[in-house]
Amino acid sequence: MPSRIEIVAWKDDAQRTLERAQVLSSRANDNLQESTRILTKQLPSKLNEVTAQVGIAKKAHTQLLVQVNDIERIATKLTASHQALIDKEMKPALLRLNKVLKELEQVEVPEFLIPSESGTTHHLSDFVSWSELDQLRHNIQIYEENCEKVSKFLLAQVSEIGDKFRSGSGKFTHTMKLYDSKVAEVKVLMNEAVGKSPPKNISNILLSLLKENTSLENELASVLKMLTNHFDQCTLAAQWNTATDEESLQVLQEDSMELPSVLKEIEAIHDIIENNLSRANQFMELKMPALEQVLNQCEKWGHWYSKFTNEDIISFLLLYLKCSELYDQSSLSKDTEEDSALASRKKSPVIEYTEILEQLHHHYEKFRSVYQKNYLTELHHEQFVYPRQYLKQLDEYLNVELLKLDRSEKERRRNWLQKYGEYIPRQFFLPGEFNQPQVIQVLSEGLDDVDSEATIESEAKLLELIKKLRA
What is the 8-class DSSP label of residue 109? Predict the structure, then answer.
């Protein structure tokens, strides 16, 4: 049986080993806590921050893409629809007006139709208000030029907005590529390590470190518990308890002999835990720059996004509204500027100009048509046909009807006198003796030259002109 001195030596050795193990265990636990903090708090926190910023950037980029597309769409629609209205409505109306004006230049007005300007041949175009027409066409040209400048400037701003967006989008894409290549993998490893997703990566260093540290922590606690138990037993044995049997002392002796190897095991666990902390720090040092880089780039992109939306986008929208107003400004706008209610309901200048052009086209088309189809025919009727009809009626009245009436009256009077005249005293007025109606002289106007050579020649010219225009 071991002596009391040997047992006390065992106890002292167990105490020294336990104290050394406790020191190593304390260091190891500190390292375990630090590793756990790094792997389960610091890294996830940074990952969550980066992921959140990436999510914000993605959402902002998506919204911005929609805004830029909307800007391109509304600007293109505004300029294209306005130009389409000009091309479809106003330009054809102007061409039609110019065409009928050109036709007026080809229609002659003979000198005999304008007595005050004899010796001069005119055309229908000489009776057009050219100064007003030229002013109208000049105003339309200015309006078109102004609208073209507005459209070009607006589309140039759209192009500039697009260029700025593509530049910012390129930076965003670069950040997302960096995130996908450097950060997304870490996030997957982290999710697998904390159990948020089933492990797929065979070599997941984070999962390995956490599992190994948990195992080492349990093993360290087990060994420390064993050493504590051994020390307690040695303390009891050192009290020389006669109840301690020889077999138990034999076990204590064997355990005491194992203390160096147990201490080495604790030191090995300590070293592994310390190495794991170093690996965790190295992993953080390796991945943190990429995380910080993505975070910084997201922050910079966020500043660019705010500046772009608050300055460029807003400025463009204000410009868009101003351009819409400029499209509605023309030489016709002055008529409605004072009446805001009317101005708010007024038509587009394109429509107003088109309506004016259509009205002028209708007027001059009617002018040409009336001249060719109505005026000359009516002129011939009034100058030649009607005077002859009038003269014929007058001749028939004077030389036929009136003469017949006069002869009939004279015959009636003679018959009456023959029948009753002898019974009338001579002092009486005899019927029909004085102041009997008779035509002494006929005064007329516009009938003297009805059949003169000059009239016949003028009529021939007019009929020739009518025939020519109807051909």
Answer: E
Q: Are 201 and 189 in contact (CB under 8 A)?
A: yes
Q: How many CB atoms sit inside 10 A of residue 76's CB? A: 14
Rounded Cα–Cα distance for residues 262 and 17 (Å): 9
Domain boundary, last residue among 327, 361, 390: 327
93 and 163 share one domain: yes
Quote the CA–CA distance of 10 and 261 in Å, as a whole number: 15
For 439, the token pair is 């035509």
* Helix (H) or strand (E) segment spanning residue 123: strand 122-123
Domain boundary among 327, 361, 392: 327
Residue at 126: amino acid letter: D
Average pLDDT over every residue of 32-38: 92
For residue 333, tell me if it sits in a domain. no
Count of domains observed in the chain: 2
The answer to whether the CB of 57 falls within 8 A of the CB of 172 is yes
| 256-260 contacts, C-beta under 8 A, 24 or more apart | 256/10, 256/13, 256/14, 256/230, 259/13, 259/14, 259/17, 259/227, 259/230
Task: Among 55-59, 108-112, 450-454, name the most confident range.
Answer: 55-59
The separation between CA 323 and the C-alpha centre of its own chain, rounded to angstroms, equals: 13
CA atoms of 143 and 211, how far apart (whole Å): 79
- Asked whether residue 336 is domain-assigned, the answer is no
Tokens for 149? 């400048």
Question: Where residue 435 falls among pLDDT bands split at 50, 70, 90?
Answer: confident
pLDDT 10s digits, 221-238: 999 999 999 999 888 888
User: Is the Cα torsion angle 286, 288, 291, 295 positive or negative in sign?
Assistant: negative
Please check the confidence at residue 28 and state whether its pLDDT lies above 60: yes
Name residue 109's beta-bridge partners.
122
Nearby residues of 296 by Cβ (< 8 Å), 6 or more positions away: none
pLDDT over 50 (residue 342): no
Distance CA 415, CA 263 (A): 183
Model confidence pLDDT, tens digit, residues 357-374 = 999 999 999 999 999 889
**Do 395 and 128 contact (CB within 8 A), yes or no?**
no
Average pLDDT over all residues of the chain: 88
pLDDT at 144: 96
Res 262 pLDDT > 60: yes
Q: Label residue 440 exposed, middle or buried (CB < 10 Å: 0-12, 13-18, 19+).
A: exposed
Residue 111 is assigned to a structural domain of this protein: yes
- Give yes or no: residues 145 and 281 share one domain: yes
From CA 43, how far away is CA 205, in angstroms rounded? 13
The SS3 of residue 121 is coil
Asked if 208 and 35 count as a contact pair (C-beta separation under 8 A), the reply is: no
What global pTM score does this model have?
A: 0.73
Please name the helix (run of DSSP H) or strand (run of DSSP E) that holds residue 270, with its range, or none: helix 246-307
pLDDT score for 240: 66
